[in-house]
């Protein structure tokens, strides 16, 4: 007699459980993928908006301003010049009478002589003083130890000590770190009981002034000149928006250096093109992302971007200065029209683009509610994350429910297996 077919309870329970759970697994997976895709897309959009906002701020201020200027010097060996966004086109005659200098004093010592073990070496810089107690130096201290004690002193207001050697002499050189007539150095020594202190007293009395403390002196203008003094060789507040580095003092027979400030038309166009590329990248990033295309907030941002560039600035449209949209909302620049606007009225163009009520400011205000750390896109991410967490919880509950179903099926098929075995055993007795 043939036996009944055997069954595998574990396998059958797994198959039946898989069939029962497949539908809901698919629904939960689709929802999880949807929320994950949306969350990643929103995060990417927020990052793009933050980067774009930073670029807009840079274009409105500082050295990265959209409206770049050029600056040239007729003698780069005498002075170099840089122009920022606030510089106004023009030319200037500059004569460098003298450069600013750091005060520098030198004292000569016998390198083989023993340094005094006591006494106070005092240094005053522009009214701020400190002292080094030689008794605090290590046993057998040398000029190297004194130099280190000066440089590392907690009250040092800006003094630098170094050692120089020439033949049989060692020089202790004391310098002010900042240039200018006000940064004058005064040295003093109060000897102690050690007779070797006389060497320091003698060196101090014979000190040499390597460079005197002095301000830079510059004349602006070839006829009725304006005199300017500066503690530094970098002039940043004499001509608005212009930085001048003084490199060499001129002789009386030298002619003045001509500095010319003008607009860098190519740099301005390059900056504008960089802005347009960034703008188009953000807008097209929304259009090309399926998750963002279906998101109402992302579409609102896209619409607000376009609205921000419509209307007039300083009474004129952006189209009038060569900035235009195509039918897909992509920005481009008409170089000929832009060049004409720049040549005709650069001040108006600057106000239209970078002014307080200009194009860049309007875009900044549009982006700000979305790009900031606790803005609308952050709230959107929290909502999406909460939805994703809910799906995760539902999946856990579903997994637990299916685990119970598996156990139920396993119990049923195990009982079936026992019943079949008993039936086979009963039939085998006949």
From TrEMBL:
The keyword Transcription is assigned to this record: no
Keyword Secreted applies: yes
Keywords: Bacterial flagellum, Cell projection, Cilium, Coiled coil, Flagellum, Secreted
Pfam families to which the protein is assigned, alphabetical: FliD_C, FliD_N
Chief site of localization: secreted
Compartments in which it is found: Secreted; Bacterial flagellum
Flagellar hook-associated protein 2 C-terminal domain boundaries: 213-424
Domain Flagellar hook-associated protein 2 N-terminal: start-end pairs: 7-103
The protein's assembly and partners: Homopentamer.
Protein family per UniProt: Belongs to the FliD family.
Main function: Required for morphogenesis and for the elongation of the flagellar filament by facilitating polymerization of the flagellin monomers at the tip of growing filament. Forms a capping structure, which prevents flagellin subunits (transported through the central channel of the flagellum) from leaking out without polymerization at the distal end.
Name assigned to this protein: Flagellar hook-associated protein 2
